[in-house]
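Hi R.,

Here's the input for the JDH complex you asked about:
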Amino acid sequence: MRFDVVSIFPEYLAPLELSLIGKARADGLLELAVHDLRSYTQDRHRTVDDTPYGGGAGMVMKPEPWAQALEDIAAASPVKRPVLIVPSPAGEVFTQKLAYELAEEDHLVFACGRYEGIDERVLEWAAEHYTVRPVSLGDYVLNGGEVAVLAMVEAIGRLIPGVVGNPESLVEESHSDGLLEYPVYTKPSNWRDRAVPEVLLSGNHGKIAKFRREHQLRRTAARRPDLLDTLDVSNFSKTERNVLWELGYAVEQGRAVRRTGE
Ligand code: JDH
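And here is the predicted structure with JDH in place:
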């Protein structure tokens, strides 16, 4: 897999050289290049922004340096139509599902905007060479695309075979069931007067699985009730349904529905 990142702050992407992704690069599992957008400018001031047509606060990124950068990168692509990811507060939300989808690609190019974003015509024009995907990291406002790219490259990169040390953890993840994780513990078994839940020391694997499942459901109901609303619970066991009931949910037509007054 090849990654190219274009940014006016290439130093911002330095963490990609470290840890998991840096190791995968060193092992030849993925290639990554960071490009300074200013190196594609033609004027002596290396200008990348200008005032917005229609008025308003802030500046907009000029199209010409972007076209030059994206043209050069597309020309050097190992594939016919690379995917251009454009981080944007107005993009589709980046999810684990999208990470899996993008991990199948051979070439991903990331265009990091700053200021109020990139002139919209760049995205229209880029569709001639790329599959263009405006993507948002989530519903909050960042100052530019760089932080989003750090998160996306890490989430996608770790799905490439060989990048994550223990492939079992990936298999477990891909079977993850739309619920939050159960809590985890390690030694010492007593720490500052807090004991690890006894069942986890019992060696009874049936009871341990039941305990973990119950806590997944509890956490999800408390922190992410939105996940329960869309979950298919038609295959839930009697025990799982009982936990849901205690959390205030009934099962109706394969869905968990909040119990009201009676
Ligand atoms: C790329 C520039 C800064 C800030 C306008 C938008 C009111 C526009 N999840 C994510 N949040 N933010 C980004 C992101 C931000 C970026 C760029 C990605 C390039 N910026 C910027 C504010 C606005 N603002 C929100 N509206 C409610 C108007 C750009 C991101 C990702 N991925």
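One thing worth noting: The CA atoms of residues 8 and 37 lie 5 Å apart.

Cheers,
M.
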